[in-house]
Every structure is written in C-alpha cells, then in structure tokens.
Design a protein that fits this description.
- This protein is α/β, with parallel strands linked by helices and 256 residues long.
- It is built from 11 helices and 11 strands.
- It has a 5-stranded parallel β-sheet. A 4-stranded mixed β-sheet has the order 3-4-6-5, with helices on both faces. Strands 1-2 form a two-stranded antiparallel sheet.
- The longest helix has 13 residues.
- The termini are close together.
Length: 256
Amino acid sequence: MTEKRIRQILDDVAAGSMTPAAAFKLIGELPFEDLGFAKLDSHRSVRRGIPEAVFGEGKTADQLVAIGRRVLASGTNLIITRLAADKARIVKRKIRALVYHRDARIGAVVKERRKPSGRGIVMVLSAGTSDIPVAEEAALCAELFGNRVARVYDVGVAGIHRLTANLEVIRDASVLIVVAGMEGALPSVVAGLVDKPVIAVPTSVGYGASMGGLAALLGMLNSCASGVTVVNIDNGFGAALAATLINRVGIERDGS
C-alpha cells in the first residue's frame, strides 16, 4: 500500500464513490501482513517514502515468489536484493515481470516509477572494477528510490589522477556514495576534496589481510577526513537508503 493509493482511497470515500467499509477492507492489511514465515511491512512506504526491500540471501525461491506476489498485490514496487542468478531464474518463471539486474544482483518489478526527487544528484564512486557489484546495488537502489544518479567507476587511490580528472562532476553531486575494498582509502580522499555528505561502503574485495572487508571498514571508520558516514561491509542498499534520506531533507513528499 503506497501513500498515493491511500490518498486516492480517502478521496474516493470523501467523494462518495467508495463506502467506508470498502475502504477499510482495502487498508486493513496495515501495518503489516503476516505470511507465517514472513511479516510484510506494507506500511513502510507510507512512513518512510521508501518501500520494504526483500533480502534474497537465505530465502528459498518459493518464499521469494510468495513474498513478491503479496508485495505487488499491495501496489508497491518489488525490490529483491542479493538475488543470485540461478534463484532469479526460478522466481522469474512465477513472476514474469521481474527484471534481473545481474551486476547489482537485484530483481525488481516497477509498477509505478518514482518521479526523480531530491535536492540533486546522488553520485556513486567505486575504487575498482571489482567493487562494481556493490556500487551497482547502491546506484540501482538509489534510482528505484527516486533519485537522479550518476556513476564514476574505477577511480581508486592506486591511480589518483583518475579521481582528480572527474572532480568537476563529482563536486556537482548533492550526496556521494564511495565504494572501496582493499584498504578502503578512497572515501577519505573524496571527503577531503568536497563539501558534500560522503557515505562510505567497504567491500569484501581484497587479499587475505583485508579479512573479508574488515580492513576497509576499520580504515573508513578511522578516516582522517571528518564527517565520513560508514555503512556495513558490502551494504550498497543501506548506503542508497541513507543517501536518499539526506537528499530529501527539507523537501515535502508529494505522495507519488
């Protein structure tokens, strides 16, 4: 159930084209729907302006199909993160409208495309090509949440001239999501060069001593540049949500 749909129901009741009983039946699933193995937070898009996303790892294809069908029945866009390609093929047989974005490992059905909103552009930077899957999760989610998104990939500190060559466009962004593995140095460098919020995303990319992204995470938490916000390892989705909320500050939601 979206905010726009609830407003439409209330308008219909006020106009006399829908009875209060019919309206109550339509919104009776709020604030959540219990499927037994999952409780769908169908009210989240009303509270936060962003629909509930489904974490694909650890769920069976049948569970994802059942959840996906109920999400779509509520009128909300379906977003499944961390969806493996083999599982996506199974889900798509049952939910034909599902579009699988392989680089981002996201399956999505967009029933209603959000109008671009926010103060400006959310810029996603990746330190290396190996960080692109996490960067694409962040970029695609930010787009699905209604942001204008730009990407600049493979601009890590091993060749800092690649970053400085893009500084003009980077400085035009309203919020920056900076994705890096190895030692996780890129967010510190970027934060020292711009006056915009920087959300750092450590990735699990790196050799043994990177400890599955822990080295990058600790490096970002200990950033010499002040004001860097850090999300969990490989959490592109979380970075996109944080960037969306920052980008919307002071802007009134229109319910679309």
